[in-house]
Amino acid sequence: MKPGSHTINILIILSALFLHLVTGCVNDEGGTDCTGTQAIISLSVRAASDSINEDDVLWEDRVNELCMLAFDSETGELVFNQKLYFPDGFNDPSRAILFPLGTYNFYFIANETVYSNLVNALEDIQNESGFTSNTTFRTLAYNLAFRPDGTTQEGRFVMSAVYKNIVVVAEGTESNPALLALPTEKVELVRSLAKVEVIFRKTVSGSTIPENTITSVLLENVAATLSVPPWDAYYTGTQTTTQTASLAGLDYDRDSIGSVTFYVPEFLVEEGSTGYTLLEINNTLYPIENDEELEGLQEQRRTIPSLSTHSVIRNYHYIVNAYIDGEGGYRYKRM
Question: How buried is 113 (Cβ within 10 angstroms: 0-12 exposed, 13-18 middle, 19+ buried)?
């Protein structure tokens, strides 16, 4: 832990939540019949219990485009690679897709144009093995200044979802489309970054805390690159440090002094390793901690053996409660 003078007492309580976006298969009315060798698929996009793009405050569910790729599950050969068209917006189903019968591995990529090199890599891919052989998919540069917003191209999360060995069958017509037999009710879109929210509170309600008691908040040992779709291996790339958070919104007259937020790439670390991402408050370091059962990772249909609970996992919402008083030293507690 980094040395430094301590003029406040900070009790850190961390909790890890997981958020998800979902894309569900829904019926599309009217049209021609399926043939004996093809099925018709239609998709709708939602963010958890709300529709895509309904969050017009934090803009964490903003999606402007959704690409679907499908590969033959035995040969890995590409059979479909297109952006889905939503003629009435993402609150309504996509245009129906005529799709060959068979067993496929499906990949969904949202907001690909955030990265021009990702667009090129997706255009060039011909086999599922391309996600491994083309390093572009796991070396996308992390934007240190990233903040989700409602207008700019860069202010969107790149998201993805992977479903393997999905059987497509012809059971209906375009007016009654066949549904993908997925292991979950809806297709889950996962953000490529994690959210770290640090909330400052007074240890004793109504106590006096001097102005500017918190002098700096940042994250160290942050992954400098991110992967889309997820790269299920320990992170071995370069590391960086986030920008120092703006503390202009902190109000020391309130019991809940205020908060700062970071959006950072996934950083998977092997159990027992020490080079994980750290939260720094006033030159004191605290490790990020996950739910011990890693339920959020399991819900992403991913398995990484011997994973440290100090790993940063994409799409998690890490909440750090920092309780402050005017005494020296600090105490640390995991929720």
Answer: middle
Token pair 């739910």 is found at: 291
CA angle 191, 102, 33 (to 5 degrees): 100
Q: Got the DSSP string for 279-312?
A: EEETTEEEE----TT-HHHHHTT---TTB-TT-B
Helical H segments across the chain, by residue range: 116-124, 130-133, 295-299
- Alpha carbons 51 and 14: distance in angstroms, whole number: 29
Reported as type and span, the H/E element at residue 258 is strand 256-265
User: Under 8 Å CB-to-CB from 81, ≥6 apart: which residues?
Assistant: 67, 68, 69, 70, 122, 123, 125
pLDDT band for 172, please (50, 70, 90 cuts).
Answer: low
> Of 40, 52, 169, nearest to 97 (Cα)?
40
Bridge-partner residues for 43, per DSSP?
25
In tens, the pLDDT along 307-323 reads 999 999 999 999 999 99
pTM of the model: 0.88
Q: Which of 188 and 230 is assigned the larger pLDDT? A: 230
